[in-house]
Amino acid sequence: MTRRADPPGPMGFLVVDKPVGWTSHDVVNAARRWFGVRRIGHLGTLDPLATGVLPLAVREATKLLPYIESAEKVYVGAIQLGVATDTYDAEGRVTHRFDGPLPTAAAVAAALAGFVGERLQVPPMYSSVKKHGVPLYKLARRGEEVEREPRRISIFDIKMPHYRPPEVGIEVRCSAGTYVRSLAHELGEQLGCGAHLASLRREQSGPFQLAQARTPQQFEATAEAREIEALLIPPAQVLGLPRVALSATQARRVANGGAVPVAEARGELERGPVPRPGDRFSGMTPGGALLAVLELQPDRRLQPLRVLGRL
Question: Which fold has domain 12-70+208-234?
């Protein structure tokens, strides 16, 4: 059966404050109802236990996900010492309870400080990472545990705003792909008492901030009032790249995959530093809409890497 095409409309990004208990896909399904379109994607999965910033890309903005998915994240949350679980969070089955005295605040702070920097992290079995095409959580639910390839991540900063045993408050600034659940589990192992992630809230995902977010209920009301599309964040604003103002002739060329000589470019490119091969720019239509992501080639031409929409 042929899937019905989405109705035309503006593209952009929406920041949802994901509630506890919702999966990231639950949010996407809700947004499809709000906009009446299928073409919606999310940036960075949040576990059902976690809340906070879940950015959505709507319509053609989904083409930009590869350019912003690797941005850093900021989380706040709490780790409970003394109890380990199979999922590394509060939703899992308890695998270990510690009856001895809990570590001092100084010991906890020192262990957390040791996480800062670039390191390899093994994804938890209860995760959406795939092994031979099958999500690990499906294997875990069948009682299987398989070897997982470690991934290179970076912890830029980690703080302990409070320690009220057994609860450890944390603030983490990290690279994309970091599992804070795994950090909680590793902390428990290092301290010898076991631990799991009790709560987690994402406050930032790349350019998206919690201050921009609204709850699903708020978006639902806005959609019913037919005003939700006015809340979309423009793609060029999200990319944050210098903007090249394309003439009508240049825009047609770019829309068809053609390059533009950098010497003919106008806009922020004229006022900034001399661009180097590999630099990227937002190619804007004469009407001020994002048309393409452009990259400067060694031959001094701006080549479109990704073209959005139509003229």
Answer: Pseudouridine synthase (3.30.2350)
